[in-house]
Amino acid sequence: MQTIVLLGLVGLLAQLVDGSLGMAYGVTSTTLLLFIGTNPAAASATVHLAEIGTTLASGVSHWRLGNVDWKVVRRIALPGAIGAFAGATFLSSLSTEAAAPIMSGILLALGLYILVRFTGWGTPRGNLGKPVRRRFLVPLGLLGGFVDSTGGGGWGPVGTPALLASGRMEPRKVVGSIDTSEFIVALAASLGFLVGLGAAGVNYAWAAALLIGGVIAAPIAAWIVRHFPPRVLGSAVGGLIVLTNTRTIIRWLEVPDGAQTAVYVVLYLVWAAAVVWSVRAHLADRRLHAEAAAPTATPEEPGPGEAAGAVTDTAPGGTGDSPRIEARD
């Protein structure tokens, strides 16, 4: 029962992150399942089954708040589904010993990307309003779907930064469109795992716990995407993913205890520095925007009876309240 409650909380927190960043639900949830010793293919299958419900709830929430570009969803979802099905059947064919380091390596790379991307650059803006081309979205969907199912997550970390980097969509619409299209990707991945593992390969109680937590968080996350700084959240989540999956790889490599401690100390310091940097960068950006939005003072027009070039002065012996006007030649 304690595990079920914990997974429910993980599903809630993971969906808050995913709905705000457009990524990291699968990466976060799968990382935890691997941490407690779940078979890699079963972990990914369980998370993707839960994602069918969470992505549906998230998509509806984003749609109601106007965060979805349906043209992008239509163009990226089908290639994503094909890639996810292929990735799921591939992962299901690997042994547990071979799959564990592969999945952790993918998750570590995704975590590093999230950490560096959001810490260093935040969320870019550029040619807003220009259409995103099909020849860009189709290969992006295929790659994102394959990485998503083999890594237990990856649709958001692959798709969201790529669409943000294009500069053609508002960040909130990138997040909403990626989250909405992920419903089709999760459905295809689940079918692939069903073919590769059979019905016994999924822990339905765990999937239900993740689902319930995610559904509760979906509408909250759709609201957070408008208010919480994604730069700070991306740094925090990216560091957590890197730290957890580094632990798995270190154990697989049988690194000596002294070297493990050194690696963890460095990672904690880098993670803390990244979060501090992101907070300071966000505050600096907010100050710049506030200064740019502040009204600028304009010179006052001459009042009635004041000639252009007139100079005002105070009468001799006055208090400064009675103006005297001297006209210049």
Automatic annotation (TrEMBL):
Topology with respect to the bilayer? Multi-pass membrane protein
Q: Which InterPro entries match?
A: TM_pro_TauE-like, TSUP/Inactive_protease-like
Q: Where in the cell is it found?
A: Cell membrane; Membrane
Report TM segments: 72-92, 98-116, 183-200, 206-225, 232-250, 262-279
The segments labelled Disordered in the record are 292-329
Q: Which UniProt keywords apply?
A: Cell membrane, Membrane, Transmembrane, Transmembrane helix
Is Nucleotidyltransferase among this UniProt entry's keywords?
Answer: no
Low complexity bias (residue ranges): 292-310
Return the Pfam families for the record. Answer: TauE (PF01925)
Nucleotide-binding as UniProt keyword: no
Q: Which family does it belong to?
A: Belongs to the 4-toluene sulfonate uptake permease (TSUP) (TC 2.A.102) family.
Spell out the PANTHER family in the cross-references: MEMBRANE TRANSPORTER PROTEIN MJ0441-RELATED, MEMBRANE TRANSPORTER PROTEIN YTNM-RELATED
Protein name (record): Probable membrane transporter protein
